[in-house]
Amino acid sequence: MFRLIKIIFNSFLIVLALIGFNAIGGQKYIESAISGITGFIHQHAENRAKAIADFSSLHEEFQIDNTVNILGYKAVIAEHKISGQKMCIIDSGNKTIISKEDIQGNNTEEKLKESISKLKYQAVSFQDIKVISKGTITAYGQNVPYAKFEAKSNRFPVSDLTGIVASLKTTDGSEKLIISLSEKKKYSQLISEEFFKNVKES
Questions:
Q1: Residues paired with residue 135 on neighbouring β-strands, in sequence order
Q2: Per the domain annotation, does 99 fall within a domain?
Q3: What is the pTM of this model?
Q4: Would you write out the chain's pLDDT as a tens digit for each of its 202 residues?
Q5: Helix or strand (DSSP H, E) at 129
Q6: Which end of the chain, N or C, is less packed with Cβ atoms under 10 Å?
Q7: What total of structural domains would you count in the chain?
Q8: Is position 80 within any domain?
């Protein structure tokens, strides 16, 4: 009985402490701290992303999420805040992952499969890749060819994806692979074009 009273009393003290904490602005303090940490992470990602491209002209609807290394290649991952569509730029230095000629050629699907098979033990995994159309997109001030594709993935929240892939070379001689991806039914070419047309050489 005494133990039960003690538990109730301690619970009552915890409730009072929480009420007091909120009364002096504790919740706002926590929200502010979380916001500050999130802002710091995004700012850090943006600073590291400057080594790959100049993103200063991007509209505020886009956000640089992260900078990562994929098999030793530097990459920037961005997101369209409203739709969740992802954009990625991989800087492979002077190594070609997939070339502009590969994207323009007749065996683009095979070249994509070869390139992605190199990443099979990494964070990205695609299967059943099918090129559905081709076109051109502006990125880094260049008009570059892209291949639009559909694929399945077991490492994304959704399995059916649609996106584009393009390859270009910047004035410093480095190869850049640009990718935009979203859920099959939600992919927007307009979002891809709006993002990449504002990506410039740093």
A1: 146
A2: yes
A3: 0.73
A4: 556 555 555 554 464 445 555 555 555 544 554 444 444 444 445 566 677 888 989 999 999 888 877 667 888 889 999 999 999 998 988 888 889 999 999 998 888 888 776 654 454 566 788 999 999 999 999 999 999 999 887 655 667 889 999 999 999 889 999 999 998 889 999 999 999 999 999 8
A5: strand 126-139
A6: N
A7: 1
A8: yes
